[in-house]
Amino acid sequence: MEESVRDPDTGSETGGDDALLGNVSKLTVTPPGHTGAARKGHLVFDACFESGNLGRVDYISEFEFDLFIRPDTCNPRFRVWFNFTVEHVRETQAISSAKLRELRLVGNISHMPQ
């Protein structure tokens, strides 16, 4: 699994909007201050594959993450789709809200297609 540099306050990749230049690759998002190995429920986001476009993930709470989608390669003004995977989910884990820039999704992560 690839190591990622994370901001200790947000649990996300560092670099602000500059982090949107590439995809997250097996990024484990843990609560701020967590040390040691990731546990079941500490989600692993990945978009390092063809058509993947998740640029950054910020930990908000156990059930809430801010997701930043990279712009379309051929038209940087638009973000009309999203494609990424989420692993390491607890069976009962749900996301109360996930923000994809201005798009707001509400649902149970265990029922989201991969």
Can you describe this structure in just a few lines?
The protein has 114 residues and is mainly β. It has strands at residues 27-28, 44-46, 54-61, 64-69, 85-87, 95-100, 103-107.
| Overall mean pLDDT | 71
- How does the major sheet shape up? 4 strands, mixed
- Helicity range: under 10%
Please state the CA-atom Rg, rounded to the nearest Å: 13 Å
Give structural notes.
The chain has 114 residues and is mainly beta. The chain has a domain at 44-109. 0% of the residues lie in helices and 29% in strands. The chain contains no helices and seven strands. It has strands at residues 27-28, 44-46, 54-61, 64-69, 85-87, 95-100, 103-107. The strands form two sheets. Strands 3-4-6-7 form a four-stranded mixed sheet, with no helix packed on it. Strands 1-2-5 form a three-stranded antiparallel sheet, with no helix packed on it. A hairpin with a 2-residue loop joins strand 3 (54-61) and strand 4 (64-69). Residues 46-93 form the Cytosolic carboxypeptidase N-terminal domain. Keywords: Carboxypeptidase, Hydrolase, Protease. One of its GO terms (molecular function) is carboxypeptidase activity.
Which features characterize this protein?
about 110 residues; mainly beta; four-stranded mixed beta sheet; three-stranded antiparallel beta sheet; about 0% helix; elongated; disordered N terminus; disordered C terminus; Cytosolic_carboxypeptidase; protease; carboxypeptidase; carboxypeptidase activity; Pepdidase_M14_N
